[in-house]
Amino acid sequence: MRRCAGCMKSKPKKELIRIVGDKEGHIFLDTTGKANGRGVYLCPEKECLEKARKKNAVSRSLGMRVSQEDLDRVFAELDKYEKENA
Ligand SMILES: [Zn+2]
């Protein structure tokens, strides 16, 4: 079980999407769940994305400063993923 950084509910890992931070301070969607690096989990739902964004949950969970551009890009990818898998 992993906890969504948006709604804070624990769910099976496969129901959540992992965002990974790399050494250069960039973040990306890890749709395989196997990428190296620190990860933060989110439900693929708009509500959770918005909550995580407001709480600055991605930067906090990863313990690194994430640029607004990276956040926007990853959230857009998550949004797309959510629509494709709805
Ligand atoms: Zn959630």
Quick take:
With 86 residues, this protein is an alpha+beta fold. 38% of the residues lie in helices and 21% in strands. Strand 3 (17-21) and strand 4 (27-30) form a beta hairpin.
Summarize the SSE layout with pairings.
Elements: E1 2-3, E2 10-11, E3 17-21, E4 27-30, E5 38-42, H1 46-55, H2 57-62, H3 68-84
Antiparallel strand pairs: 1-2, 3-4, 3-5
Bound molecules: zinc ion.
**Rg over alpha carbons:** 11 Å
Cα shape: globular
For the secondary structure, the number of strands is 5
Helix content: 25-40%
Characterize the biggest β-sheet. Answer: 3 strands, antiparallel
Name the CATH class: Alpha Beta
SSE pattern, N- to C-terminal:
EEEEEHHH
Tally the structural domains: 1
Structural class: alpha+beta
Low-confidence stretches: none
Q: Hetero groups bound?
A: zinc ion
Structure write-up:
The protein has 86 residues and is an alpha+beta fold. The protein has one domain: 2-Layer Sandwich (Hypothetical Cytosolic Protein, Chain: A), CATH 3.30.1230.10. Helices cover 38% and strands 21% of the residues. The protein has three helices and five strands; from the N terminus they run E-E-E-E-E-H-H-H. The strands form two sheets. A three-stranded antiparallel β-sheet has the order 4-3-5. A two-stranded antiparallel sheet has the order 1-2. Strand 1 (2-3) and strand 2 form a beta hairpin. The two termini are 21 Å apart.
Provide key terms for this protein.
86 residues; alpha+beta; Hypothetical Cytosolic Protein, Chain: A; 38% helix; binds zinc ion
